[in-house]
Amino acid sequence: MRLNYVETGSADAPVVLLGSSLGADQRMWAPQVDVLAQRFRVVAFDHRGHGGSEAPDGPYTIDDLGGDVVELLDTLEVEQASYVGISLGGAVGLWLAQNAPDRFHRFALICPPSNPAADPQLWIDRAAQVRAEGTQSITDATLGRWFLPDFKEDLDPIREMLLDCPDEGYAACCEALSTTNLLPGLSTITAPVLLITADSDKSVPPETVVPLASQIPGAHLEIIENAAHLVTYSHPDIVNPLLLAHLG
Ligand SMILES: O=C(O)CC1=CCC(=O)O1
């Protein structure tokens, strides 16, 4: 699987991978990239079916999405990296922490869905809607979950990104979420994990993220106040220092 990625920062610096939310691509990391690139070789990638990555017909699985990231490290000839992921990218991070522990130093997982399979119908229905009516049919609702009404910045770039996402790729990743339960392996995670949740996240409610902090050995939890799901975009002033402090 050929994943699209954009590299920023010194080629000699330690590598940090950035994994995006469902429907998003590497552009969503604009508020983080230059800050992280002062210390790291930043590799912002697109999940399969998203952005510039290949978009084979679905359904996909979390094993597919996680395996793609390990393959990307091989392609880059990078033995070990750190990983920052939000939303779908956070679920992929939980998979990597459990299934490829030797390839990663540290994880920062932002609003990660750990057991979306608990409500499979939600994802199956959304996949069907997007296959039938396209991502434009879910864009307004998505923006409503991702940002609070008082977030006044221009959301056109985010809207455009969602509209650019291939319908089949979005739907196939919904199907991956419908079969993903990463809870059973949490206690096996050995890498240092920073968990970030947002108090008003309707996509991945904080009640589903807070318990992970006691189930992942040594995990550290931060709760961002007055924030919705896409907290990296709405609150970079809070999130970026947390990432820098955790990634070292
Ligand atoms: O609500 C969304 O569209 C974002 C999302 C992706 C995975 C998840 O649980 O929420």
From TrEMBL:
EC id: 3.1.1.24
Gene3D superfamilies: alpha/beta hydrolase
Domain of life, source organism: Bacteria
GO CC, alphabetical: membrane
Molecular function as annotated in GO: 3-oxoadipate enol-lactonase activity; monoacylglycerol lipase activity
Top-rank EC class of the record's enzyme: hydrolase
Pfam families: Abhydrolase_1
Keywords recorded for this protein, A-Z: Hydrolase
One GO-annotated biological process of the protein: beta-ketoadipate pathway
Domain AB hydrolase-1 stretches: 14-236
Keyword Iron-sulfur found: no
NCBIfam families, alphabetized: protocat_pcaD
Protein name: 3-oxoadipate enol-lactonase
Annotated source species: Kribbella shirazensis
